[in-house]
Structure formats: C-alpha cells, structure tokens
Design goal:
alpha/beta; 10-stranded mixed β-sheet; 442 residues; 20% helix; globular
Length: 442
C-alpha cells in the first residue's frame, strides 16, 4: 500500500486568484497548470513514511498557509552584493519568482540567443517553450514539481541555437526578498541546441531572514554535441526552506556537467536527475555542501543510462558541524541494452562534530551485462596525523583544520570549468567554512 501523504491544500488556497492573474497565457499553458493542480491534490505532501523522504520531514509544510510571494519592486539595492561583476557575464534576475528585466543584462548575448522571462516566452509562444516545458519535470510523479507547475507563470527561459557558443557565463539570479510563510515557485527552462556551448550559474540567494520556501524546478535540454557547464549555488538565509528539482535530458556526444553547491538554508532538498538518452554522452554530476547548527540537507540523484556507450562521473561531498544532518541517496540506473556503460559514483562526508549525522545510500540498478559501474560512501573526521603534520610546520590549529577541510572540497570545486565561476564559488566556500563553529578562529 502506498504511504499516506499530507494534504497539499495549504499550498493551493491561492490558486483561484492566481489563475485569474495568469489568464493572458495561451490555452496549452493553462491546461498544463490545471493538470498539475490535480496531480498536486492527488499526490499531497510526502511524509517520512514515503521511502524517498524517509530521512527528510517536510510534512509540517502541509500545516501552514503559504502565500505566494508578491512581485518586489525592481530596486537595484535588492541585488547589491549578489551579482558578480568580475565575471562580465549575462545576468537574468528573478525577484520572488518574477522576472525583473530592469535588473537583468543580456547585452553580451550572441545573435539568435533568447534569454528572457519565462512568462514573456510563454505569451509569445516561443517554439522551444511549447516543445519542452513540462516534458521532463513530470507533475504526475513529484509532489513539489506538481505544485511548481500548478503555479507556473514566470521564471527564466534560455534558448541557445544550433552551433552558437556563448562565451560569457550566464548568471541566473534568483533573489528571495523575505516574507514570513511565503512561497516562490522558481522555474527555469534551458534549451541548448546541437553543437552549442554555454556556462550557466543558477544562483539562489536571499535578503530576508523570515521563514519562507523556495520551490524550484529546472528543465535542461542538451542537444547532440553540445557542451554545457551548469553550476547551481544555493546560499539562502538560515531560516529558508529550499526544495528543488533539476532535470536534464542529454543528446548524443554531448558533454554536460552539473555542480550543486549548497551553503545556506535551514532545510534543503535537491533532486538532480540526468538521463543519458543517446550514445557517447559524457555526464558529470557533482555536489558539495556545508552545514552547521540544525541545518538539514538532502541530495537525491539519479543518473539514468538509457543508451549504450555512456560515461558518467559523480562525486558528492559534505562538511557537517554541530547537530546538522545530511542525507545522500544516489542511484546509477543502467537500462537493458545500455552496454559499454562506464559509471562511477562517490559520496564522502567530513564530520567536524560528534553530534552531526549522515544517512547515505549509494545505489546501482543494472540491467545490462557489459558495463563498468562502481559506487562507494565514506564518513569520517579530519585525520589527526595530517593536522599534526601541518602544526609541526608552524601552522596553527585552526588554520591547519581549515586547510585540510578546504582541500576536501577541492575535488568537487575544481571540476567547475569556467575559471571565474570556479574562483568565486571557491571564495564563498572558504568564507562559509570559516563560519563553521569548529573552524572559527579562537
């Protein structure tokens, strides 16, 4: 018997008003939303009795009213300190789920590339939106995807045509301006046609300290021979809840890398699913996270090898302090006929406190007989001999521990392709680690 879910009614109380506000969208978008609403009602909110949510309790969300975050005024002060001018990149800003053209800059985009608010792309019925929106993120299977799609109105749309290379990084900046018990359903649709190249930074941050929820869905389509490096950075406030689903469909001979970096949030749940839907795909799925206090982070990944000759590489690492909790559930799925698959998965946690907790579940599900698949998980503490080695060379206790902890992160951070993005993310990780109680200077 399926596990009983909590009702999703607390999320859907504002649906009628939302529908009236969204009536300018075409009929196909309305049908997509209304079908998702029905799925949300049927699926409800998962509890810990549901296997996929066994160690992450979100059932309390069903007991609170959730007002949709209103559109904030496009005040440049709201994004001060959150943009990265040194990148000289393209910036697409979303405030509380609403695209903010006044705070966005796409001047560096090559001709033919479309980068705009998702609401605009839906109303203008861009062919790629009609062909791809809702195709990967299936409302019938995932409760929070259903809620996101039911309230689908705005977000980011990016379309890179065949053979076009975007040299400047594309910064998708999602800003949570606060508001107690508010929810923002962030949506991104990223389409990279055959032979295109791009670097994307999907960045979630916040300016308010009130408890609130970001419910994000990102659909990424990578065409044959395309090269895409996609970094997701989550650094929302310590009171924020962040639930996200990232779905990628990968074409023949493409090279796709997804890096998930989580530094904030009270509770974070990341679902990262990549389907290798053609031969000779190169796929990297990496993650790194730092937690302290009562923070809780749950990373669920699925790398689906649907066709032969696919290669996937996955490394997820976490640094935990105080009473924080990390959950990792990673599955490599090799379908029947997906011969010559080469898939590697590794999950490692570094505990800075005896009170920190880890639940890790690496999985292999293989229906082909000519494959190379490995997985593993390690949970441990800093090596006292390594700390002693550094201290014997005149390095202080705190500095030695910081050096070793950051070295632990380097395997993941070093895989970010764009030097500017990599260096800035590394700076943020160092700063975040310096705040960990066990690594603070005494």
């Amino acid at each position: 018997m399926p596990a009983k879910m909590e009702s999703a009614e607390s999320f859907l109380g504002a649906y009628a008003d939302f529908e009236r506000a969204a009536n300018t969208q075409p009929a196909w978008a309305k049908q997509l939303r209304q079908a998702a609403r029905e799925h949300a009602l049927a699926l409800g909110i998962p509890t810990t009795r549901h296997e996929e949510w066994r160690y992450t309790n979100v059932s309390s969300l069903a007991k609170r009213a959730h007002a949709l975050a209103p559109a904030a005024n496009a005040d440049a002060a709201l994004i001060t300190g959150h943009t990265w001018p040194a990148l000289n990149g393209i910036v697409l800003t979303v405030l509380d789920g609403h695209f903010a053209p006044a705070l966005s800059s796409a001047a560096a985009l090559p001709s033919g590339v479309t980068a705009c608010g998702l609401a605009e792309a839906i109303v203008k019925e861009h062919p790629a939106v009609q062909a791809h929106l809702g195709r990967l993120a299936r409302s019938s299977e995932a409760p929070f995807v259903a809620l996101n799609t039911a309230f689908l109105r705005d977000g980011v749309f990016l379309h890179v045509p065949q053979g076009v290379a975007v040299d400047a990084p594309i910064h998708l900046l999602f800003v949570n301006t606060g508001g107690s018990d508010t929810v923002r359903h962030a949506r991104s649709l990223l389409v990279f046609e055959a032979g295109s190249r791009a670097t994307v930074l999907e960045h979630y941050t916040g300016t308010g300290a009130a408890p609130s929820l970001t419910n994000a869905v990102t659909e990424t389509f990578v065409g044959p021979g395309a090269v895409v490096d996609h970094t997701k950075l989550q650094q929302e406030s310590a009171a924020a809840w962040h639930i996200a689903s990232s779905e990628a469909l990968l074409g023949e001979k493409c090279d796709y890398a997804a890096h998930s970096i989580s530094l904030g949030g009270l509770l974070t749940r990341n679902d990262v699913n990549a389907k290798l839907d053609a031969e000779h795909v190169e796929c990297t799925v990496n993650g790194f996270y730092v937690t302290e206090g009562d923070q809780h982070i749950d990373n669920h990944t699925l790398v689906d090898h649907a066709k032969p000759n696919g290669h996937s590489y996955e490394v997820y690492k976490g640094v935990l302090d105080e009473r924080s909790v990390a959950v990792f559930n990673g599955k490599i799925f090799v379908r029947e006929g997906a011969q010559k698959t080469d898939a590697k998965q590794d999950n490692k946690h570094l505990l800075l406190s005896r009170d920190a907790e880890v639940q890790t579940k690496p999985q292999l599900e293989i229906f082909a007989d000519d494959v190379k698949c490995t997985h593993g998980a390690v949970v441990g503490q800093l090596d006292p001999n390594a700390v002693f080695y550094l201290r014997a060379r005149g390095i202080g206790q705190t500095s030695a521990r910081r050096m070793l902890t950051f070295a632990f992160a380097e395997e993941v951070l070093g895989e970010i392709e764009h030097a500017g993005v990599r260096e800035r993310v590394a700076e943020l990780v160092r700063a975040r680690m310096a705040q960990a109680p066990s690594l603070r200077a005494s």
